[in-house]
Amino acid sequence: MRHFFKVFAILVCLSLPVGMFADEQPLRWYATFDFACIDSLWNNHICFRTTIGTEIADSIALELPVSCTFDRSGGDEILLDLSLRLIVHPWAEGFFMGLSLTRACMFLGPHIPQDQIIYMNEFTMGYTWEFKPGWFIRPSVIYRDPSDTDIENFIYIEGLVPSHTRVCVCVELGWLFATIAPDREA
To answer: Which of 15, 77, 79, 125: disulfide with 69, CB 3.0–4.6 Å?
Structure first.
């Protein structure tokens, strides 16, 4: 798995625009809502996932995904999942890869387990399709704990919230809500 992260780091470096640091680009801010939470109609959980992000370069973005899972299998546990994720579009559009820089899972509710906060990582791959200016759809697959370093923590979370699986499929609707141009003073 270490080779995987080395290849990911090389792809990030190769995808950086040549003039990224010489010419300031506008920051594009966007928000997404995951429609894959519709599976709560037939599963024992309700999951809400939203993201706010900014494109810091042509093919690089930083995101703050937040998800909240309410388990309905009898334990009343609530799992709040917060992370900071780096997104890279290696070919400028379409396909993207993401890696969580930091991620914390917190339990809330009346029955809080002994380990209330658990830190893990995740890897994301998907495709961004802009169907209208400022609007996009982004199907993706999230693989949690790709390095198998937090097996005990993952089993612990899965035991309390059985719907928290290792592979998660997302279908996000996104909206580009602001573009902030840099201040160009001569």
So the answer is: 79
